[in-house]
Design brief:
It is built from 7 helices and no strands. The protein has 207 residues and is an all-alpha fold. Helix 5 runs antiparallel to helix 6. The N terminus and C terminus are likely disordered. GO terms for molecular function: enzyme inhibitor activity.
Length: 207
């Protein structure tokens, strides 16, 4: 990430010329909206990753005990039920429930969560451009573009209506979502290197 390293060096020189109090105010001003957006992205992507494993498990288990109780819940309760497994259930619920669909089954919620992730990543990209103050954060934007591309690949799995999710399709979704999480986290790490204060963002291990 040569451009990030160059920007990092320039950023240090510029900060040395500024009043320390102004520096701190500037850091907080640009970090808060980014932290909020990143937290939502991590939450939804982690939910998507978890849902894919859940579907894989249920695909291989036909016992009564393994059946999800979602079918007996309404749309709102279904989303609440699934979002409760995440670190930020309220953010998860808000992002997914904004869909015009009324899902009750895990497959539909999985698709909606992917679409919600794409939407939040696009917001994140816009926030980066708005807060970059003209500096080159090209590497980070490229990573976000790649993450969106991976998630679009995941959405394409549902081209047949999502009626059939084979093992291969579920594994593909897991791979693409994992790659999107990695891209997003690499971007966050790069932002921290160039001075964005993102210490409160929780890093999610995929293991």
């Amino acid at each position: 990430m040569d451009s990030l390293k160059i920007f990092k060096g320039y950023d240090k020189v510029e900060h040395n010329l500024e009043d320390p109090q102004k520096q701190q105010q500037h850091r907080h001003k640009i970090s808060k909206p980014l932290i909020a957006t990143i937290s939502i992205i991590i939450t939804i992507l982690f939910l998507t990753f978890t849902l894919s494993f859940t579907l894989f498990y249920h695909h291989h288990t036909n016992s009564t005990e393994s059946k999800t109780p979602l079918n007996s819940l309404n749309s709102t309760d279904s989303i609440r039920f699934i979002c409760n497994v995440t670190r930020f259930p309220d953010s998860c619920f808000t992002a997914i429930s904004s869909s015009t669909q009324n899902p009750t089954d895990p497959k539909t919620i999985l698709k909606i969560s992917i679409l919600a992730s794409i939407n939040e990543l696009n917001k994140f990209s816009s926030s980066l451009k708005a807060n970059s103050n003209g500096h080159a954060l090209g590497d980070c934007n490229e990573l976000i573009d790649d993450a969106v591309s991976r998630l679009n690949d995941s959405v394409s799995v549902f081209s047949d209506g999502g009626l059939t999710l084979t093992d291969v399709k579920i594994n593909d979704i897991q791979t693409w979502v994992s790659a999107a999480l990695t891209d997003q986290q690499t971007c966050v790490d790069g932002l921290e290197e160039v001075g964005f204060s993102l210490n409160s963002v929780e890093k999610v291990p995929l293991h």
